[in-house]
Each structure stands twice: as structure tokens, then as C-alpha cells.
Design brief:
The chain is an alpha/beta fold. The protein has one domain: Rossmann fold. The chain contains 9 helices and 7 strands, in the order αααβαβαββαβαααββ. The chain has a 7-stranded mixed beta sheet with strand order 3-2-1-4-5-7-6, with helices on both faces. The N and C termini lie far apart (53 Å).
């Protein structure tokens, strides 16, 4: 009985220490993504078998076309480019804490002739330099789990969104099917860090990505955070066995 209690205590301590570690890493998230920016796109597409492109295409389809759209954690601009391809916005403003990721995004946008339609801003999602109700829609793909304070970031999204405006968040989640969940966990725990290190020479960054997915409150748990920020009409749509999930919401 004592051994069982001791094992439970050790497990709880490791969970707490893990959360503290990931919280510390998020304080320097821009630097982390600066380090892996050069290999990020290629690894994403290879490791996901290009499914990530389909996820983005599908996630933004329900968004109504608008004038001004904010893409939070714009990174290398994959989501922004898809938004423009589908005619979802006349102009996209993107904000990110990684200058190197945005530099790659700017090159991609210019190559496609979209440079006049996109503005890249360096800054934190938790303290955005935009006036209240500046945008008709806000999107974020695979960025929310990297916020140092997720609730502050969601509150900022709500603040800059106009009444009636749409929010779309695309983020990793965990499958409910036990077999798929086992394979998914194996992939994120062992394969992703190994391959990430092989190509980027930065195992710690890909270990962080693994931990960030495991610690993210997906599904109804995340919907609770959206409600607390003030959002309404929340919809949750898992994709590909629940490997990733799209969240839609609206500002009243």
C-alpha cells in the first residue's frame, strides 16, 4: 500500500515538474521557433504525409469572406496563404514571436504575389498592438498551445474581434480510439523528436512540441476556456480520428 502511494506521489510530482518545465519553455517560444524555422515546413509536411495541408483547407472552409482578418501565430504563413487562396479575406494581418518563421512566410507570400494583401507584425498574442474590434475574423493554427498564458491570448482575440466576428482555431488533440491513441502517442513521444533532431539538430525543440501537445486541454476542456473568454456558439470538429481538432466560435 505504501509502495502504491509512493508511486502515485512520484507520478504526480513528475506531472507538476513537467508542467513547470513547459511553462518555462513558453517564455522563450519565439527563440525556440527561430532555431527550427529553416526545417519547420519541410518536416511538418513529411511527418504528417501532407495531411496538415488538408486540415488547413478544411478548417477555413466555413469562414465567411471578410475584409480584415487576423492570423495569430502566423509563422511561415501556411494558413494565411490558404485563406487568401480561398478568398476568405481581402487583407490578412499576422502576428508572431518568431522573426525567422515570419521571414520565411514573407518569402512565400511574395512568391505567390500576395505581399500587398499581408502584413507581418512581431509581437505577443497576449498583448496585441491592435485597437478593440479591429478584425472581422481571427484565426490561429497550431499556435494556441504555445501561448505562455492561453487565457490571456484568448481574451485578446476576443477583444480585437468585432461583434458578430468569427474565430477559428486549429490545434492538435488526442484520439479517443485506444489503438490510434497508442500509435499517436508513440509518434509524438519517440518518432517526432528523433526525426526532428535528425534534420534540425534541435531535439529539445521537438521534445517541447511533444510535451505541448500532451499538456493541451483539447475538446470540451478547451471549449470551456473559449466560453470563459466570452465566445459563444462554440463548435468542436475533430479531424482524422481526432488527431487534430477545429474550434469555431463567435463574438456576440
Amino acid at each position: 500500500m505504501n509502495n502504491k502511494r509512493q508511486h502515485t506521489s512520484q507520478k504526480s510530482r513528475h506531472v507538476v515538474e513537467g508542467k513547470q518545465h513547459i511553462s518555462e519553455e513558453k517564455q522563450h517560444i519565439g527563440q525556440l521557433f527561430d532555431r527550427i524555422a529553416g526545417t519547420y515546413d519541410g518536416l511538418n509536411h513529411v511527418l504528417s504525409l501532407n495531411i496538415d495541408k488538408r486540415w488547413r483547407r478544411k478548417a477555413i472552409q466555413p469562414i465567411r469572406p471578410c475584409g480584415q482578418l487576423l492570423d495569430v501565430a502566423i509563422g511561415t504563413a501556411d494558413l494565411t496563404i490558404e485563406l487568401l487562396r480561398q478568398g476568405k479575406a481581402e487583407h490578412v494581418t499576422g502576428i508572431d514571436l518568431s522573426r525567422n518563421m515570419m521571414a520565411i512566410g514573407q518569402e512565400k507570400v511574395a512568391k505567390l504575389g500576395y505581399q500587398s494583401k499581408v502584413t507581418f507584425d512581431y509581437g505577443s498574442a497576449q498583448q496585441m498592438p491592435y485597437a478593440d474590434e479591429s478584425f472581422e475574423a481571427v484565426t490561429c493554427a497550431y499556435g494556441v498551445r504555445n501561448f505562455a498564458n492561453m487565457d490571456e491570448g484568448l481574451s485578446e482575440m476576443y477583444r480585437v474581434l468585432r461583434p458578430g466576428g468569427e474565430l477559428m482555431i486549429l490545434e492538435f488533440s488526442y484520439p479517443t480510439n485506444p489503438l490510434i491513441r497508442w500509435g499517436y502517442d508513440l509518434y509524438f513521444t519517440h518518432i517526432l523528436p528523433f526525426v526532428g533532431n535528425l534534420f534540425s539538430r534541435d531535439r529539445s525543440a521537438y521534445n517541447y512540441l511533444n510535451r505541448s501537445v500532451k499538456n493541451f486541454p483539447y475538446g470540451e476542456a478547451f471549449a470551456g476556456h473559449l466560453r470563459a473568454a466570452g465566445f459563444a456558439d462554440i463548435q468542436i470538429k475533430p479531424l482524422t480520428f481526432g488527431i487534430t481538432t477545429v474550434y469555431y466560435a463567435r463574438k456576440d
